[in-house]
């Protein structure tokens, strides 16, 4: 089997996924781009397993199965975060997500009065 075609296909899929992660503003589309990158890795693992003789039989397929399980867990957690973001902000734009945690309102009032933690 010629491994060039699956490797090139996986490289194109991974590149498309990286482009999607870097350029998209919608959180759901970013998650889809991450899934595309994980599927490209799966394609490389299975292709390498069939072309390279390893000491452990079917090790690439086993690693691909672990990546599929990881992708399912990532989608579960990622969609939960997206749903919470939509509930709080009424939108799922990645640009609107604050990267630093805002201080609690009580801490802000105490800071305004000059009452710091002692």
Count the beta strands: 0
Instruction: Give the N-terminus to C-terminus distance in angstroms.
Output: 70 Å
Strand content: under 5%
Structural class estimated from helices and strands: mainly alpha
Q: Which shape, going by the Cα principal axes?
A: elongated
Question: What is the CA-based Rg, rounded?
Answer: 21 Å
What is the number of helices? Answer: 4
Order of helices and strands: HHHH
Helix content: over 70%
Rounded mean pLDDT is: 80
Spans with pLDDT under 50 lasting ≥5 residues? none
| Main beta sheet | none
Can you walk through the features of this model?
The chain has helices at residues 4-23, 27-51, 59-89, 105-113. The protein has 118 residues and is mostly helical. The protein is elongated, with a radius of gyration of 21 Å.
Précis, in short:
The chain is an all-alpha fold and 118 residues long.
Itemize the secondary structure elements and their pairings:
Layout: H1 4-23, H2 27-51, H3 59-89, H4 105-113
Helix pairs in contact: 1-2, 2-3
What keywords describe this structure?
118 residues, mainly alpha, 4 helices
